[in-house]
Each structure stands twice: as C-alpha cells, then as structure tokens.
C-alpha cells in the first residue's frame, strides 16, 4: 500500500468476516444450529421427515412473529415483558368480537366479521403498545418496570373480560378463522410461516434500508446523540413499542386459531421464551444490535432443541435447563469474540 | 452586519446560574475563541446557540432577524452546525450513517423511501478526503480511534452549507498531527466565509486561529477583545480570576 503522509500504516482494512452479518452473534448461532440439526438428524431418523419439519416450522412461527417485534424494542435498548399477556388479550378480544358478531343481526359480507374481529384484536394490541411506548418515551419510565406492570394489567384484563374462562371463536366465520391462522398453504406450508417470512422481510428492509431503521439503531447506540442530530427519538420509540405489541397480538390471534380457543392463561410466561429467542439470536439487551434473521434463528434453535429432545426421548423436563444453557452459551461466545477483537 | 448576536442571554438551572447577561456578536467568516475554566458556562452557551436549551432570559438574532432556536434541527436549518464535546456519535453505526443521521439521502419506490447507501458512503468519503482523515465511510465508529471519531463529528458539520460552526473542544482527544489538521480546517472554513466559535482549553490552538477571544468566568463574560490586543498570560489571568475583567 502506498503510504501517504497522513496514512496510518497500522490501521488495517476491516476484513469481510469481521463486519456485517458474518461478524454477528447471529452467524455463530446459525452455525451452531446447523451442527445441532446435523446431530439430531443422525440420532433420530424421524427428525428430517417432511411431517416433522412442517411441525417445527409451525411451532417456531408461533413465537417468532412476537420475537421479531421484541427484537425491535431490544435494539432501541428497551424491553417489553408484556408480550405474553398481549398475546392473550388480543386473542381473547378477537374471539369475543367474532362470537359477538355471529349473534348480531347486521348483514356482513363473508369474512367481514373475521376482519372486524382481527382488527379489534390488533387495535387492542396497538393500544397496549402505545401505553408502553408513551410511558417509556415521554414519561421516561424504565421499560422493565413499565412493561412488568403492563404484563400484570393486561393479564388481569384478560381474566376480567372472560371471568377467567377464556373465549372461543364461534360464528359463521369460524372455519375461515381457523383456515387463515392454523391452515396450510398447498396442504404443506403452515400459513403462520408465510406470515413470518413476509414480516421478517419487511422488518429487514425497514431496519437496513430506511431512515427509520437507522433511527432505531441510533437510539440503541447513543440516544442523546440521536436527539442532538435531530432523530425523532420519542416518536420512534413509541412506534417500536406499538409494533412489538402488534406483532405479539397477531401472534396470539394465530395461536388461538390453532388451539381453537383463547384460554385466559394463553401464552403465560411466553415473554421469557420470546426474550430468550431474541437474545440467543443476537439481540443485545444493552441496545444497538439485533435483526430479523437473528430473531428467527433464535426461535428455530429453541424449537429444534425442544423437538429433538422429544424425538430422542429425553425427559422433557430437561428442555428448560438446556434452553437456559444455550442462552448463556450464546452470549458467552459473543463476549469471547468481542474480547478477542477488542 | 453581524451573523449571530446574543443580547443579555441568561440561563438558570434551578438555583444554579449558568449564564448571566451575556451579550456578544460574531461576524460572517469570523473565528472567535471562547475560553473559560470548567463551569464557566461555555458549553451552556453552545447548547443555547445550537438549540438544545432555551435561554431563561435574553434573545438571539441570526443574520439580522430574531431567532428562536427551539431544536437542533432548527439550528441546522438556519445554518448552525455543532461539534459536541462528547462528539454525539452512535458507536453501532458506520461513519457514513453517523454523518447523515437525521438527514439521510433517500429514493422513492412507490410510497416507500429507501436509503441511498452508495451515495451517502461516497459523499462521506469525499468529506474525509477533504479533512485529510484516513477514515472509511463504511467502518463502524466503535472500531475507530479518537482522531477518526473526531473526524466523523467534524465531517458532519460539512454536509450542509453551514454559516456558523460551533466547536466544543474539537482538539481535546486527538493527536498532535490531527490538531494541526483541525486548525488548518478552521482556516479553510474562514476562507469559505464560514464563522467558527472555537471552545478550547488549549491556549496555543486559540491563539493560532482565532481573531477575537471571549473569556467567560462563572457565567459572566469578562473579556471580549481582538487577539492582537491580548496575550496568553492575560487570558490565563482572566480565566482564573487573577484579573477581574478586560
């Protein structure tokens, strides 16, 4: 290299594997995932059958959409503990509205009741997200405490709304509801997986190819720098919490379609699995790091382990212990790597 | 005509009076040194001009008309750019992303607006070449040296056609060679008709580039005189309070 007068001959160009996706925790976890899948396939002949793959795909889609949402919040340096409760309340509202419209005398076009019911469920989620976002961005409350409160408030409302009995989707649109939530495309691909792919691509584009995405990362990296350079910090934060709740609500509605009911204890403690999936996939709770691919990789890893342990006839009580070990291992590997790279 | 005028500006934070009745003006293309000990009110003054704090009393005018600078974005619209003391960089973004933060270049696809990554990287590379800084547009700020980070913060002020650049300790964290680069940059800004308010603790820097020097002590302006009529010794005496005013 021709060294100019002001050149730093000791500053090397960053190699391609030292930056971008390949340098991220997501890439390491993806490599680990591939190894685990290979081992599982060797140990259990049933693991890579089309039926089991469809099974895994459907199961991880159930938490993956919510994981996409919470990843956005985590990138801004926040956290949302209320996702599990939001899943339950959105599903409950959707079921209640669907059943309510079945008895109503108004003539709606086919599917009309379903659309209204889903919109009502999503509006509920959006309201929860707005409340979280407003409290965090405008009132400057801690995201952990705020959403711990919302977790309890929203779960309580779910019990209140149904006297603890839960809700059941009924009415003329019920079959359509089941088809668009728990159905399969061409009798093969779970429809929830299609939703997940569409949302993940939209999230990738928004994060890496729009100014809004830059703002999400900038808030997580250095919030005050964002304010000084004219980033609409409060507005973006509120939007991020709303998107997180909407993703959780949508996910809850899908789960209720698959279950055929929305029990009041739906998705209890799911927030822990969802946060775990996001963190395993490379979202950094300190903020500033994360992505759509990582969120999905984290969900797949958790589900593959769960599924593999069942097929290997390991006592299912070991699952939780193993998932916990993976969380620690994933962040440990990332820590060792960043120590080496300085 | 003055570019920027401050008339009787005061700022209180609760019981603390950070600025008391400060007035001064800056002409277009003028380089003014702002000196004072820690807590003298320099940074507060910068933050009022750059739109972060509103003054408690007094008012500002910019280019002859009253200016109510309510936000950093508004200061930029007027043509006031700032290099903050802590540089205000997001470590997890690239150099180019930091330079364009808040004013990204975009193109439209239907209702969506996507980032023009290549155009922003290319423009950032031009700015670094102008600053003679070996900083790459697509490297993360996290991996940069102090001098490179400073270059990113300064490059940001060169993005738009600024009329006034505020520099809060721009040479505090950089190498000797880079200090010389920053000082020659300030000279070039003057040639381009851009005014600079330079805040610095480093007496040689201020005496090397400034035409006028303003000294602050405990929120008051204690001196405002051309550089030729003062000396580093006098300025030190004014900063410490050994000399009351000049």
UniProtKB/TrEMBL annotation, chain A:
Signal peptide interval: none
Locations listed in the record: Cell membrane
Annotated transmembrane regions: 27-48, 60-81, 87-109, 114-135, 185-207, 238-260, 272-305, 317-336
Alphabetized PANTHER family for the sequence: ABC TRANSPORTER PERMEASE PROTEIN YPHD-RELATED, ABC TRANSPORTER PERMEASE PROTEIN YPHD-RELATED-RELATED
Keywords noted in UniProt: Cell inner membrane, Cell membrane, Membrane, Transmembrane, Transmembrane helix, Transport
GO molecular function annotations of the record: transmembrane transporter activity
UniProt xrefs under InterPro entries: ABC_transp_permease (IPR001851)
Keyword set includes Nucleotidyltransferase: no
Topological category with respect to the lipid bilayer: Multi-pass membrane protein
Protein name, UniProt field: Sugar ABC transporter permease
One of the record's GO cellular component terms: plasma membrane
Native source species: Devosia geojensis
From TrEMBL, chain B:
Keyword Cell membrane: no
Transmembrane segment boundaries: none
Sorted UniProt keywords: ATP-binding, Nucleotide-binding
Superkingdom assignment: Bacteria
Any one GO molecular function term: ATP hydrolysis activity
Keyword ATP-binding: yes
Domain ABC transporter: 4-243
CDD domains xref list: ABC_Carb_Monos_I
UniProt name for this protein: Sugar ABC transporter ATP-binding protein
């Amino acid at each position: 290299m021709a060294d100019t007068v002001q050149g730093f001959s000791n500053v090397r160009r960053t190699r391609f594997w030292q930056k971008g996706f390949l340098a991220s925790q997501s890439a390491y976890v993806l490599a680990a995932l591939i190894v685990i899948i290979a081992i599982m396939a060797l140990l259990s002949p049933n693991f890579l059958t089309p039926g089991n793959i469809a099974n895994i795909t459907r199961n991880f889609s159930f938490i993956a959409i919510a994981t996409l949402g919470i990843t956005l919040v985590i990138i801004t340096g926040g956290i949302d503990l209320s996702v599990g409760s939001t899943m339950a309340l959105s599903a409950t509202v959707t079921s209640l509205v669907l059943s309510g419209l079945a008895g109503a005398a108004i003539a709606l076009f086919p599917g009309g009741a379903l659309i209204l019911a889903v919109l009502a469920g999503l509006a509920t989620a959006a309201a929860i997200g707005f409340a979280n976002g407003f409290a965090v961005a405008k009132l400057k409350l801690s995201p952990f405490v705020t959403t711990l409160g919302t977790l309890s408030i929203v779960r309580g409302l779910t019990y209140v709304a149904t006297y603890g009995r839960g809700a059941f989707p009924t009415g003329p649109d019920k079959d359509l509801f089941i088809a668009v939530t728990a159905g399969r495309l061409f009798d093969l691909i779970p429809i929830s997986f299609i939703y997940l792919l569409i949302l993940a691509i939209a999230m990738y584009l928004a994060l890496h190819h729009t100014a809004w995405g830059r703002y999400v990362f900038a808030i997580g990296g250095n919030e005050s720098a964002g304010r000084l350079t004219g980033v609409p910090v409060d507005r973006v934060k509120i939007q991020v919490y709303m998107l997180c709740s909407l993703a959780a609500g949508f996910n809850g509605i899908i789960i209720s379609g698959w279950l055929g009911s929305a029990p009041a204890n739906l998705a209890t403690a799911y927030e822990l699995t969802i946060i775990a999936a996001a963190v395993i996939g490379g979202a950094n709770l300190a903020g500033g790091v994360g992505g759509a691919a990582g969120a999905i990789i984290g969900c797949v890893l958790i589900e593959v382990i769960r599924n593999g342990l069942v097929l290997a006839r390991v006592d299912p009580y070991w699952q939780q212990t193993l998932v916990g070990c993976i969380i620690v291992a994933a962040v440990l590997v990332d820590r060792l790597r960043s120590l080496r790279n300085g | 005509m003055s570019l920027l005028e401050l008339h009787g500006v005061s700022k209180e934070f609760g019981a603390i009076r950070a600025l008391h009745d400060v007035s001064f003006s800056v002409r277009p293309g003028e380089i003014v040194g702002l000196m004072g000990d820690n807590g003298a009110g320099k940074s507060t003054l910068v933050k009022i001009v750059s739109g972060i704090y509103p003054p408690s009393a007094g008012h500002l005018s910019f280019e002859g008309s009253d200016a109510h600078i309510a936000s950093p974005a508004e200061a930029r619209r007027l043509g006031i750019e700032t290099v903050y003391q802590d540089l205000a960089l997001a470590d997890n973004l690239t150099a180019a992303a930091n330079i364009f933060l808040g004013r990204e270049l975009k193109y439209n696809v239907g209702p969506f607006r996507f980032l023009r990554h290549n155009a922003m990287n290319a423009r950032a590379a031009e700015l670094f070449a102008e600053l003679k800084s070996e900083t790459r547009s697509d490297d993360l700020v996290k991996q940069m040296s102090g001098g490179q980070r400073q270059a990113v913060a300064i490059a940001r002020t060169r993005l738009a056609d600024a009329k006034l650049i505020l520099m809060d300790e721009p040479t505090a964290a950089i190498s000797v060679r880079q200090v010389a680069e920053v000082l020659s940059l300030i000279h070039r800004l003057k040639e381009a008709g851009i005014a600079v308010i330079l805040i610095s603790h480093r007496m040689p820097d201020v005496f090397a580039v400034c035409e006028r020097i303003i000294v602050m002590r405990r929120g008051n302006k204690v001196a405002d005189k051309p550089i030729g009529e003062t000396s580093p010794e006098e300025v030190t005496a004014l900063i410490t309070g050994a000399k009351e005013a000049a």
